[in-house]
Amino acid sequence: MKREALGDAPLDESARSLLPCSPAMRSEKPTCAVIGFGRFGRLLGRILREEFSVRVYDRQPDHVAAREIGVEVVSLAAACAADVLFFCVPISEFESAIREARFYLRPGTLVMDTCSVKLHPIEVMRRELPEDVEALGTHPLFGPDSAKDGLHGLRIVFCPLRVSAASLDFWRAFWERRGVRVIEMSPDEHDRRAAYSQGITHFVGRVLGELPLESGEITTKGFEAIRGVIEQTTHDTWQLFHDLQHYNPYTPQMREDLIRAFTTVMLKLYPDDPALKMLRRAQRARRRTGGKRRGPDAP
Fold it and tell me: Are 276 and 270 in contact, with CB atoms under 8 Å apart?
C-alpha cells in the first residue's frame, strides 16, 4: 500500500529526519504500543516495560490492570504514534484492526503481529500496510500460563516481511537476553508445522474435554498428562480455538489425517465392522479425488 494513496504529501529530507527510527538506532528510550490488552497483551506489556515506554489501546481497556503493570492506556491514534506496535488481537479480528490503525501510522514504524498462524497476518500486512512501514510476523510460542515462571527456555517464531536488518537484530537480541530462543522461518513452513503441533493439540484437547474425565485414586501419570492437555487447551478462549482451525490452511488436512488414524486403530480392533469399513472406503475415495479443504472458511 503506497503512502500517497492515503492523501499524504511526500516528505522532504528535513521532515524525514524527525521521523521515528528503529529502536536499535535511538539513544532515548523508545516507545512501544500494545494493540489489544487481553491476557497476552498484558503479559507482553509487562515484558516490554523493562526497556520501553509502553502504551496500550483496547476498545474495552482494563484500566486497573494497566495501572498494576505500569503502562498507559491511550487512544488508537496515540498508540499508533509509538515507534513499535504489537497487535495482540484475535486472528479473526487482525485484518480489521490493521485497517483501522493504518491511517495513523508514521513512516519508519515497526508493526508486529502475534498471531498463532502466519500466512493470514503476513498477507494482511503485505496488502494493507503502507510501504514505508516495517512489518515483522511473530508467533510467541508461550502465553501467560507457560510464562508464569519466567521466559527462559521458551521460543518465539519470526517471519520477516518488510523489516530492516537493524530492527530484526534488535528484536532478536531483545528476546535472547530473556532466554527466549528465536526461530526464523517462512509463514508457509510455520503454518504447516503448527497445524500438526499446536493445531492438533488444541483439537484433541477440545475433543477430550467433551468427555467426563475425572482424576481419581487409580488414574495413571499418562492420564494426568492428558488432563493437563485438556486444562491447558480449554483454558484458552473458544475464539482462539476456532481461529486456529479456520485460519491455518493446513488444519483441514490435519483433521482428516486424525480421523483417518482413528479409523485405522478402530479397524484393527474391529476388522469386520461394516460401518468402519464404509468410513474407510469414503476416506480413500476422498483422497483419490484430492478432496482437501483449504482456507479460512474451511469447516
Answer: yes
CA distance 90 to 84: 19
- Cβ atoms of residues 20 and 52 within 8 Å: no
What's the burial of 4, exposed, middle or buried (CB within 10 Å: 0-12/13-18/19+)?
exposed
Say which residues have a Cβ less than 8 Å from residue 273's Cβ, sequence separation at least 6.
266, 267
Q: Are 112 and 159 in contact (CB under 8 A)?
A: no
In degrees rounded to 5, what are phi and psi of residue 85?
Answer: -120, 130
Model pTM? 0.84
Written as one letter, the residue type at 3 is R
What angle in degrees, to the nearest 10, is found between the helix axes of 187-194 and 119-128? 150
Q: Which residues contact 286 (CB under 8 A, 6 or more apart)?
A: 256
- Tell me the pairing of strands 31-35 and 84-87: parallel
C-alpha to C-alpha distance for 72 and 74, rounded to whole angstroms: 6
DSSP 176-233: HTTTPEEEE--HHHHHHHHIIIIIHHHHHHHHHHTS-----TT--HHHHHHHHHHHHH
pLDDT in tens, the chain (299 residues): 655 433 333 333 333 333 444 554 455 789 999 999 999 999 999 999 999 999 999 999 999 999 999 999 999 999 999 999 999 999 999 999 999 999 999 999 999 999 999 999 999 999 999 999 999 999 999 999 899 999 999 999 999 999 999 999 999 999 999 999 999 999 999 999 999 999 999 999 999 999 999 888 999 999 999 999 999 999 899 999 999 999 999 999 999 999 999 999 999 999 999 998 998 999 888 888 775 554 444 43
Q: What are phi and psi of 143, to 5 degrees?
A: -150, -170
